[in-house]
Amino acid sequence: MKGKIADPSLASEGERSYSWAYKNMPALVKTIESFGDEMPLRGRKVAMCLHVTKETSVLAMGLKRLGADVYLSAANPLTTQDDIAAYLSSQGVNVFAWRGENQEEYFSSIESILRAKPDIIMDDGSDAHVTFHEEKEFSDHKVMGGTEETTTGVTRLRALSKAGKLRYPVIAVNNAYTKFLFDNRYGTGQSTFDGLLRATSLLIAGKKVVVAGYGWVGKGIAKRARGLDAHVIVTEVDPLKALEAHMDGYEVMLMGNVAELGDVFITATGQINVIRGEHLEKMKDGVILANAGHFNVEIDVNYLKQNSISKKSVRCFVDEYLLKNGKRLYLIGDGRIVNLVAAEGHPPEVMMMSFSNQLLSVVNISENHSSLEKKVYDVPESIDKQVAKNALEAMGIKVDEITEEQRRYASEWKV
Ligand SMILES: NC(=O)c1ccc[n+]([C@@H]2O[C@H](COP(=O)([O-])OP(=O)(O)OC[C@H]3O[C@@H](n4cnc5c(N)ncnc54)[C@H](O)[C@@H]3O)[C@@H](O)[C@H]2O)c1
Q1: Same domain as 14, residue 152
Q2: Which residue range(s) make up the domain with 139?
Q3: Per residue in 245-267, pLDDT tens?
């Protein structure tokens, strides 16, 4: 077995976390168990570039149970739970991940899992897919297909496909209804505040919370902020999303105008420099800045670094930047994905749906890769529906079945 982790002695602590996640991900467990004694991934090498969390450990062990030889690296240098890395390593997963990797170590870990010559590459953010496509070392490796977990990763893969350079089919797990409706919205909504509160321990009620982006992630964050009695203001660039935010009862403003009003700013756009120098300079003393988007590019952290008189760590995950205008701004987790850096990421109950899609997509690629084209596919509807059924069953919720009369009624044009 290969790998590099922080501390193997954390394995038993990791096992407790794994067991807790396992117990709280019944739909994923059901999906894994639905294969019975079959091992549809026997002989397959699967490279996973995902956040190394307790939920991911249930997926990794599931892939192993279905016969795969699993290689795992982190999808962000700061999100690895070292106890989970140790546990998975003790169970025969080839883990190349530790919390606090520098940029070079992060990409070197990704290269390590790609060097295993995987048949299937699973990714969150597409750093592994892009490294595979860009590094000469991998230019003659063949891959059956891949999966992608998040919005930003799907955007990058679509650009790769548009440029005619995508070398294998990829299933956009993010685009399954049973993924984005729950993971992006409820998962990120709740865990963003989990991270924000663990980091700052401050009161949200009565604060002006500015949410940049009203996509699935932004909607979840805005809703949770409102639930905590914040005054919520949304910024957007898409007129439809802006209108939706307005009708949902939020104030919609320009970032240029709200910069001087907000107490807490949370970015969730997947875009670059959404909060930049011109905004940072206008902000009040004591403002909290956090990012929930995939990459640490949404807040211009370089501007803060280059234009501050001082930077000091004031709490775990909280840096104080003293600007030349005398105002102090507090940045959480260096502008990296707040819910995974300052908390544990999404709750297992939403990840059981996202990861059921991942697991079934991997099996799908393993079985059907020869008939798939080199393009980005949505998750097949049959998988999405199966995941919804399993989740409902796990939650003990029953739904009605359409009657024969209703089926006929829906197919006729005469009333
Ligand atoms: N933190 C997590 O655990 C987590 C989970 C899921 C997704 N993500 C990431 O969060 C980001 C958002 O994901 P999503 O699914 O909500 O995407 P989305 O496409 O549904 O929403 C993004 C929204 O941001 C808006 N936007 C773009 N540029 C903007 C700007 N300059 N100012 C204001 N608004 C702008 C877009 O119009 C869109 O409505 C992505 O990077 C995604 O990968 C993070």
Answers
A1: yes
A2: 8-179+346-394
A3: 999 999 999 999 999 999 999 99
CA-nearest residue for atom 3, ligand 1, is 188
Together in a domain, 19 and 78 = yes
The partner residues of 49 in beta bridges, in order of sequence, read: 73, 123
pLDDT for residue 1 is more than 90: no
Do residues 43 and 70 share a domain? Answer: yes
pLDDT, one tens digit per residue, over 352-372 is 999 999 999 999 999 999 999
Ligand 1 center from residue 217 Cα (angstroms): 6
CATH number of the structural domain spanning residue 315: 3.40.50.720
Please compute, for residue 142, the number of CA atoms within 13 A of its CA located in the half-sphere on the CB side. 4
267 CA distance to ligand 1 middle (Å): 8
Is pLDDT at 415 greater than 90 in this prediction? Answer: no
Work out the mean pLDDT of the chain and round it to a whole number: 97
Q: How far apart are CA 393 and CA 74, in angstroms?
A: 32
Cβ–ligand 1 contact at 152 (below 6 Å): yes
pLDDT exceeding 90 applies to what percent of the chain?
A: 99
Q: Which atom of ligand 1 is nearest to the CA of 241?
A: 39
Let me know whether 249 and 336 are in one domain. yes
Is the CB of 151 inside a 6 Å radius of any atom of ligand 1?
yes
Domain count, the chain: 2
Tokens encoding 139: 């230019």
Rounded distance from Cα 132 to ligand 1 centre (Å): 25
Q: Do 113 and 103 touch, CB atoms closer than 8 A?
A: no
13 with 76, same domain: the answer is yes
Question: What does the pLDDT look like over 296-305, one tens digit per residue?
Answer: 999 999 999 9
Residues 6+ apart with CB under 8 A from 190: 220, 224, 346, 347
CA 94 / ligand 1 centre spacing (Å): 32
The two structure tokens encoding residue 414: 């005469």
Whether residue 108 has pLDDT greater than 80: yes
Residue 136 pLDDT greater than 90, yes or no: yes
Dump the DSSP string for 107-172.
HHHHHHHHHT--SEEEESSSHHHHHHHH-GGGTT----EEEE-SHHHHHHHHHHHHTT---S-EEE
